[in-house]
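Exercise: predict the fold of this chain.
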Amino acid sequence: MVGDQRRLQAIGGEDPIWRLWSQLPEPWKGPVISDGIEDWEKITENGDRRIELTGLPDPIPAELAWMSHWQALDGTRSSVLGTNQLANILRRAIRENHPFPASIRAIDWEAAAALQRWFYATRWGRLPPHGSVARLRVIFRFSRLADTGLLWNPHRAAARRALPLSNARLGRRPGQHRPDPY
């Protein structure tokens, strides 16, 4: 019950992601993210690569844009390759009429990994290589924070940024030494 209360809640029928998205700086709103963002090469792990969110159904582009911006604010390089990989997987699922959840908040790591395996099997006839799995896993390390309310709540996200980066990235509080499940 407590976990349900921490999730992003609609107020007045509007999905709160649109409030968060509306507060993003204009260059972060997409559907293509990079141009107009100061020091983009320092924010992204991939230099001049752009985040491409075209062709995705709402609210997924808004969620991915907000997550990428949050990563940059957190001091973590924005996961351009992982975000683009997920966007490509979802665009292919749309073309192929393959089912997927309507929101990133509804996709956990297991569902994302299954989509990725389907994508690689149908496109290349093989399982995804380790590097591709790792890139996608980074996206879901951040999105799983939504279950605790830390990712989607800007006030709690600010508190999260106050944690040491290594602990913040692993979803741990200082002093906790449990292995990361992902």
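Check your answer against the key: Residues 27 and 35 are 7 Å apart (CA to CA).
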